User: Which sequence fits this backbone?
C-alpha cells in the first residue's frame, strides 16, 4: 500500500494514529461525495417506492384529497399574500430600472415574464416548503418516534403507500395550481402598483404584457412547479420518515427538511431554466 | 396456505435451550414437536438460531425460543438486550440475517411483503405507549384494521367496536368514541390500543413492555387486563417485560433473553428454581419474590 509515513529517523515508526496514509487521505476527501451519493440514493429509493405503491391496491382516494387540501387550500392565504407583494415589488423594481431609459411602459411584460417563469414557481415552492413541507416532516417524524408507523406495519399497511405516496402526489398536483394562483395575484399586485400608484397607462401595460408573455411561459413555470413539488415533498417525507429518537430529533428533521427542500428548489431552478429554454427558446 | 418450510440445511435444527442450572430440565423435549417446521399442537411459534445485527452491533446471537399456544409467554431481560427486536421478528417486521421463525409450521423468514401481510393477520400488537393514530378518534383507531382489510358495513364495524369497548371496561366512559388519543388517560390509551389489536380476532397477541411507566395500581390493572384477555379471547400472549413482579403474576411460561440469546426458558416454577446466576441476580434485584409476586393471584373485586 502506498503510504506517506510519518516515521521519525532514529526513533522507530511513529504511532499508527499519526500516519497519513494515501488511502486515508483519499477516503477523507471523498467522504462528502459518499454522503451526497448515499443521500441521493436513499431519496431515489423512496421516490421509486412511492410511485410503485401508487399503482398498487388499495387506492385510498381520501388520503390524497386530504393531502391536497393540506398542501393547496391550507397554503392559499400565504401564497396569495406573498404573491400580491412579490408582484408589487417586482413592478416597483422594474419601473425604477426602466425609468433610466424612459421605458416604464414595459413593466407589464417584465413582471409578467418574471412571474410566469421564475418568481411564481420558485416563491410558491419556498412557501409550500416552509408551510406544508415542515408540517409533513413534523407529522411523519412524530409518527415514527411514537411507533405509529410500526403500528401501520403490524396491520399489513405499507407506510410508504399510506403516508408518503399521497403527500408526494398531492404536492405534485397542487404545486402548478398554486403557482397559477401566485401568477394571478402577483399580476394584481403589479397592476395595483403600476396603474394605481405610478399612473402607467393601462392599455400599454396590457399590450406589452400580452405581446411578450405566451402560454409557453406559463407551461415552463408549471413544469418547474411539478419538479419543485417532487423535490420538496420528497425531502420533507424522507426526513420525517427517517427521524429517530425524541422530540429534539423531530425538530432537527423538520429543520433539515426545510433547508434541503429550499436548497433543492433553488439549485434545480438554475438547471431547469436552461433545459426549458433549449426546448422553448426565448422570444426575440 | 404454504406448505411447511423445511429446515435450512440437512442437519436438524437445534433443540430449545435447556436450563443447565435448574433442578430439572426447563423445556422437556416433546416427541410430537421435535421438528420445529412441523405444525405443533403445543407450540404456536418456534424460533431457531435467530441472528440479527445492526451495523457493528450483534443484537440477537442465535435465539432459540418456543411460544406455547394459548398461554401467556413472557420474555424478560434487561434494557438493550434485544427484547423488542426479537418481538418485531416474531411478526416479520424485521428480517434476520440468519435463522427461522415458524408460525404454525410456516416459516416467516423467506416470505415477501404480501405473504407477510397475510400471516400478520394472525397477530395483534399492543405497543408500549399504545401507538394510537393521533389524527383519528377512538372509534377510527379501533376500527382501522377492519376498515383496511374488509368491506364491512358501518353498523357491523360499530357493533364490533362497541362490543370491545364494553368488554375492556371503556363502554361507560362518557363520549369515549369521539375522543382523540391526546384526551385519554394512560390506562385508557392502553386499553384502546388493546381493543385495536383485538378487533380482527387475532390468534397471537404481542405486548411490548405494557407496564413501563405505570404506577403500581395501574400496573396491576394492566396485568389483570392481559390475563383476562388471554382467557376471554383465547389468544396466545407474548409479553416483553422487565417487570419481574408482573412477570411472575401473569406468566405461564417465562424466557430470559441475555446477551442476545435465550438463557433460560420454562414454566414459572421452573424458572424460579433455576440456579442460572444472571437470572437469579435479575429476579433477586427486582425484589419481586420479596414483594409476594409468587403468591397465588387474588381475584379482582
Assistant:
Amino acid at each position: 500500500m502506498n503510504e506517506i509515513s510519518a516515521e521519525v529517523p532514529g526513533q522507530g515508526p511513529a504511532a499508527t494514529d499519526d500516519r497519513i496514509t494515501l488511502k486515508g487521505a483519499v477516503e477523507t476527501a471523498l467522504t462528502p461525495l459518499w454522503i451526497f451519493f448515499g443521500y441521493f440514493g436513499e431519496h431515489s429509493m423512496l421516490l421509486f417506492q412511492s410511485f410503485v405503491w401508487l399503482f398498487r391496491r388499495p387506492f385510498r382516494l381520501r388520503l390524497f384529497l386530504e393531502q391536497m387540501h393540506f398542501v393547496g387550500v391550507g397554503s392559499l392565504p400565504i401564497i396569495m399574500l406573498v404573491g400580491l407583494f412579490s408582484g408589487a415589488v417586482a413592478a416597483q423594481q422594474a419601473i425604477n430600472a426602466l425609468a433610466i431609459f424612459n421605458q416604464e411602459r414595459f413593466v407589464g411584460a417584465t413582471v409578467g415574464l418574471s412571474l410566469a417563469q421564475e418568481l411564481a414557481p420558485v416563491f410558491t415552492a419556498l412557501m409550500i416548503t416552509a408551510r406544508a413541507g415542515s408540517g409533513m416532516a413534523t407529522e411523519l417524524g412524530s409518527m415514527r418516534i411514537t411507533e405509529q408507523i410500526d403500528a401501520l406495519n403490524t396491520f399489513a399497511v405499507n407506510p410508504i403507500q399510506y403516508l408518503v405516496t399521497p403527500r408526494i402526489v398531492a404536492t405534485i398536483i397542487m404545486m402548478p395550481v398554486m403557482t397559477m394562483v401566485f401568477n394571478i395575484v402577483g399580476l394584481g399586485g403589479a397592476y395595483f402598483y403600476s396603474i394605481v400608484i405610478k399612473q402607467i397607462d393601462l392599455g400599454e401595460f396590457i399590450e406589452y404584457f400580452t405581446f411578450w408573455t405566451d402560454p409557453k411561459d406559463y407551461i415552463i413555470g408549471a413544469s418547474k412547479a411539478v419538479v419543485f413539488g417532487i423535490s420538496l415533498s420528497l425531502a420533507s417525507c424522507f426526513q420525517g420518515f427517517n427521524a429517530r429518537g425524541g422530540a429534539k430529533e423531530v425538530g432537527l428533521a423538520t429543520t433539515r427538511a426545510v433547508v434541503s427542500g429550499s436548497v433543492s428548489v433553488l439549485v434545480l431552478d438554475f438547471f431547469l431554466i436552461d433545459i426549458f429554454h433549449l426546448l422553448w427558446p426565448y422570444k426575440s | 396456505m404454504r406448505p411447511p418450510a423445511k429446515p435450512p440445511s440437512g442437519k436438524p435444527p437445534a433443540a430449545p435451550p435447556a436450563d443447565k442450572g435448574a433442578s430439572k430440565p426447563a423445556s422437556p423435549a416433546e416427541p410430537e414437536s421435535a421438528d420445529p417446521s412441523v405444525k405443533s399442537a403445543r407450540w404456536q411459534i418456534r424460533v431457531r438460531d435467530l441472528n440479527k445485527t445492526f451495523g457493528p452491533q450483534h443484537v440477537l446471537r442465535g435465539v432459540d425460543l418456543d411460544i406455547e399456544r394459548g398461554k401467556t409467554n413472557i420474555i424478560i431481560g434487561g434494557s438493550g438486550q434485544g427484547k423488542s427486536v426479537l418481538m418485531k421478528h416474531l411478526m416479520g417486521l424485521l428480517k434476520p440475517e440468519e435463522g427461522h421463525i415458524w408460525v404454525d409450521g410456516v416459516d416467516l423468514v423467506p416470505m415477501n411483503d404480501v405473504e407477510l401481510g397475510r400471516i400478520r393477520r394472525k397477530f395483534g400488537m399492543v405497543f408500549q405507549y399504545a401507538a394510537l393514530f393521533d389524527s383519528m378518534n377512538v372509534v377510527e383507531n379501533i376500527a382501522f384494521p377492519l376498515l383496511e382489510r374488509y368491506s364491512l358495513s358501518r353498523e357491523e364495524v360499530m357493533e364490533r367496536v362497541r362490543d370491545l369497548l364494553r368488554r375492556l371496561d371503556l363502554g361507560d366512559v362518557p363520549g369515549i368514541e369521539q375522543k382523540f388519543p391526546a384526551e385519554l388517560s394512560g390506562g385508557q390509551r392502553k386499553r384502546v390500543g388493546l381493543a385495536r389489536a383485538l378487533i380482527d380476532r387475532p390468534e397471537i397477541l404481542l405486548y411490548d413492555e405494557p407496564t413501563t411507566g405505570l404506577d403500581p395500581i395501574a400496573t396491576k390493572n394492566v396485568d389483570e387486563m392481559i390475563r383476562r384477555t388471554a382467557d376471554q379471547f383465547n389468544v396466545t400472549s407474548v409479553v416483553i417485560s422487565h417487570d419481574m413482579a408482573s412477570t411472575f403474576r401473569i406468566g405461564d411460561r417465562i424466557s430470559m433473553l441475555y446477551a442476545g440469546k435465550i438463557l433460560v426458558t420454562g414454566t414459572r416454577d421452573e424458572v424460579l428454581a433455576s440456579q442460572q446466576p444472571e437470572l437469579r441476580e435479575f429476579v433477586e434485584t427486582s425484589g419481586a419474590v420479596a414483594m409476594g409476586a409468587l403468591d397465588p393471584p387474588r381475584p379482582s373485586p
